[in-house]
Design goal:
Elements (H helix, E strand, L loop, with lengths): L1 H21 L5 E3 L2 E8 L2 E2 L3 E4 L2 E3 L1 H12 L2 E7 L2 H9 L5 E2 L7 H4 L2 E3 L4 E10 L15 E5 L3 H9 L6 E5 L2 H9 L5 E5 H11 L3 E3 L5 E5 L2 E3 L2 H19 L2 H10 L9
Helix pairs in contact: 2-8
Length: 264
């Protein structure tokens, strides 16, 4: 009897462990709920940032609206951008909602949803800097940007002769503070994000010409059949939000302009 009891107990424990393993971190049903695991830095105003303890922002609101319409609950993870891509590639999160630009390099790794916004890459300088008014005026000058960001990469591609010195920082705040304190001559970021920052803090910054590059912004997923089906569902919801004006409304709320339509 003791042996039979011990065998039964071990069997129950093994079944419990197996069930726990199978209910791991993959997106899908958890306690009867469909969960979408999404990453954001929480430090990228106005795309994803903290309002007290609450994560808010344009990209945050868009994915939460899409997820809700599809019956998903969003489970958030906050990290720096390189940490988020690492978690995406190891399957710890399903996607990233943080102004992820669609590039050829990234398309080799990820499948993207349809774009939900468009980022115009541009440069600002301090208002007191009367000698910098066009992109040509930046030759021989130093421009700040976030390390590893697509904005910095686009600037380096634009500056084919290497006439602009690029200084990189770990955060947007670090890059922006140095142009505000006149330690560098410019700061590269998306036009919409810069407009929002300037308006929010009444920053003494001015734009240097028009954006020199535009990029599609979308949600990245790892390449697999399950995500292919999910992407199709998300694409349909993005189109609905575009058609009924919700996408534009969310954009106006955070940026004061519509960044959901690609400029001609």
């Amino acid at each position: 009897m003791k042996k039979r009891y011990l065998f039964t107990l071990i069997s129950i424990l093994l079944i419990g462990l197996l069930a726990t393993a199978c209910s791991g971190s993959n997106s899908g049903a958890t306690d009867g709920k469909k969960v979408l695991r999404v990453g954001a830095t929480g430090q990228s105003f106005p795309n994803s940032y903290k309002d007290g303890d609450k994560l808010v922002g344009f990209d945050v609101e868009v994915i939460e609206k899409v997820a809700a319409n599809l019956g998903y609950t969003v489970e958030w993870t906050n990290s720096d951008f390189s940490g988020l891509t690492g978690q995406l590639e190891t399957g710890k999160i399903d996607t990233i909602a943080n102004a992820v630009a669609v590039t050829d390099e990234r398309k080799a790794k990820y499948d993207f949803t349809t774009p939900y916004s468009y980022a115009g890459v541009t440069i600002v300088t301090h208002k007191d800097n009367t000698n910098i008014n066009t992109l040509d005026d930046l030759k021989g000058k130093t421009v700040a940007g976030v390390f590893g960001s697509q904005n910095v990469k686009n600037l380096e591609k634009f500056d084919t002769k290497g006439e602009i010195k690029v200084r990189t920082y770990e955060t947007r705040d670090g890059a922006q503070n140095d142009v505000l304190n006149k330690r560098v001559d410019g700061y590269v970021n998306s036009k919409a994000s810069l407009l929002a920052e300037i308006k929010k803090q009444d920053l003494p910054l001015k734009f240097v010409g028009e954006p020199f590059h535009y990029e599609d912004v979308a949600f990245p997923f790892m390449k697999n059949d399950k995500n292919t089906a999910l992407i199709e569902q998300i694409n349909a919801e993005i189109q609905k939000l575009r058609d009924d004006g919700t996408l534009k409304q969310i954009s106006d709320k955070y940026f004061g302009e519509d960044i959901t339509v690609k400029p001609e």
